[in-house]
Amino acid sequence: MQKFNLGSSFGKRHQLTKDAAESMAIEVLGFLAEDPARLDRFLALSGLGLDNLRAAAEEPGFLAAVLDHLASDEALLLAFAAKSTHEPSAIVRAREVLSPPAMPP
What we know:
Number of helices: 7
Radius of gyration: 15 Å
């Protein structure tokens, strides 16, 4: 019988820091870069090229955009989750940490 520690999962879910979210986004970018087809698709959809990728990475919303890209493609999201130690829901939480939903006026 498999044991689940629900208490620690619940606590970890609420303790995702900005640094942890940024680290996860960088990990996702590395995952995309491992496969030329994945990287090409990201570049094409983002309007970036290899020549300006580093400069774009310095922009404030870049890491949130990387997580958006991953979260927008379920197959890609599941492939990343299978390869990493992150559950798909953690990607969504990381994206929210880096770019929280707008508050109504």
